[in-house]
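Field guide to reading this record: the first block holds the primary sequence, the second block holds the structure written as discrete tokens, and the final block holds curator observations. Each block starts with its own label. This record concerns Sugar phosphate phosphatase, catalogued under organism Penicillium chermesinum.

BLOCK 1 — SEQUENCE
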Amino acid sequence: MEFDPKTPQFLTSDPSSFASVSADDRWPVIITGAIDDLHRTSAEVSDAEKQKEAKAIIEKLAKLKYELQHNRQLTPLDDDGESDIASYNQELEQRGNPVWHDAPWLYAECYLYRRIETFFALSTHWKGYDVFARQKMSTFKSSRPAVLELAARYRELALEAESGKSSEGKSPEEIEEAEKLLFSEMCEICLWGNATDLSLLTSLTYEDIQKLQGSQARKASQSNILVNDIDAAFATLQKARREKKDGERRVDIILDNSGFELFVDLILAGYLLSTGLATSIILHPKRLPWFVSDVTPKDFSDLLNSMVDPQAFYTAADDTGKTYPKLSEKEVEDVRFLFEQWSGFHQDGKLIVRPHHFWTTQGCYWRLPHQAPELFEDLKESELVLLKGDLNYRKLTNDAQWDPTTPFTTAIGPLGPKSGVRILAFRTCKADTVVGLPPGTDEKLRQQPDGGGDQGRKWAWSGKWAVVSFSDGKA
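BLOCK 2 — STRUCTURE
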């Protein structure tokens, strides 16, 4: 806490903020979903000891839900042998052992997922079990139309680039302009992939997911990007490619959600590698199940495995018994093309998956240079560090009540100017904290229907609006 900014954080006791909605409405639903998942899985288990242990974990989840709904104090985490437990418990004490409905939102939500993890980590038969995995893969399957659309578009672009047709008869300026537009499109796909955050959208139907994805939805949302620094990021990668033609040019992606969002992150990664805007990509997943849909290393392999036989994956009956139409031969080829390219990059060491315990600690990224100095030094080696999604943005800014016109470079503190780390944050707004807005923008959006008016910044809760914010810490 000593390295955090002094600007106050959002609290679960603030009825005008999404913090309060989270504690009241979202978290009980998420815990109930975890209970249901474990109940379903354990019902199929024949080992009596394993079943008995699952029942004990369900009881712990139910107790956690009771404490949350009856506004009890947060209690110290049980030691599961990991190094972060002491830090969580020390901070809990420093914060005065708050109750659920009057706690800093960022700390309380991280604590919630970390506590759930202890239930499984301390078990004998359920270590490493992810109560959210079923939901994650089901949502990726629901993204079938957008996956097929993007796979076809990407394959077409890759084959065109390979043949050299994309630059035939064009001047260097025209080639650069075309590349800049394509980079912008890839980044926007990456940005709006965040629309399927399972921890926020707890009751999505198959049809809802389809509406959130696809090119029409992205085009309609273009004017909703309130801060757009994509061109600055492109200029940075372009300059590095020119000046370090034969050298290592690495891009890091601090991942957010699995499923469709991980799929679009890999589309961007594949594009950067195949165009030479990067020579290697390092993906940073979470080391444990986190905020329902966040990527773990297993989610990465599950996604690739689903693409080995897309026909089987996309036509298999779902939990309700509903079946789906067969993919065409071309659709199968498009998805397999991606699988082969991505697994090839992975095997060649150009696409690396690197989890780190820091990403599931309870605090903001202002603490990174002090809490994980080796990770901080490593990120300085990157040409560009992309941070995906709402939680990474909240952690960059300490989920604090900044004035919305505060420069992004100010709100990210030690990761800002002269840090040695170059940052691009992709964020569809799903929480109150927002910075870098032009004067008057927040006030104007508050006056829109459901914008919040004087009652709060409700316009920033829905995911309709986005920011893409850049900070050149190497300048």
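BLOCK 3 — OBSERVATIONS
The chain has a mean pLDDT of 92.
DSSP finds 19 helices and seven strands in the chain.
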